[in-house]
Amino acid sequence: MVRRFDSALWWHWLVNVIAASPAWTPKQRARLLRRGGIDVRNGQIQAGCFFFSDQIEFGEWVWINHRAYFDTRDRIRIGDRVGFGMEVMVLTSTHEPGDHDNRRGAYRSAPVTIGAGSWIGARATIMPGVTIGDGVTVAAGAVVTADCEPDGLYAGVPAKRIKDL
Questions:
Q1: Tens digit of each residue's pLDDT (9 = 90 or more) over 8-30
Q2: Which residue numbers are catalytic?
Q3: Which CATH fold topology does 7-164 show?
Q4: Mind spelling out the 3-state secondary structure of the chain?
């Protein structure tokens, strides 16, 4: 019996197992991610990050901390000099609310954009379709459900602008 090695399986193995290992330096990890079609440019991706696909665009000098989750079922754009705390989740897919018999309604996806110079705190969650403006800080644990205007501090669930920066 001959087994065919599925290219999607190979991709997930390369990107989410091999490249995600803490055994690699950020430079080595970047090389592995590039082989999977993810261009990290001159940024640094730390160990344990997960990518659903290669639909992600990193700007210059991006810093992604440990165990970030990128639901790249739709496009994610991350601007120059953006930093992520640990375990940040960027989601591009969800389900619309359904009826009484099935609350998990119709599936949908929407792109996410994070503007240049922004900082996303540890365990923050960015929901589908959100645009975060340049120079925004998202507090740790915040859930961003709507667009964020530039140069503001956003915190809470759902995240609201609490301070001008």
A1: 899 999 999 999 999 999 999 99
A2: 95
A3: UDP N-Acetylglucosamine Acyltransferase; domain 1 (2.160.10)
A4: CCCCCCHHHHHHHHHHHHCCCCCCCHHHHHHHHHHCCCCCCCCEECCCCEECCCCEEECCCCEECCCCEECCCCCEEECCCCEECCCCEECCEEEEECCCCCCEEEEEECCEEECCCCEECCCCEECCCCEECCCCEECCCCEECCCECCCEEEECCCCEEEEEC
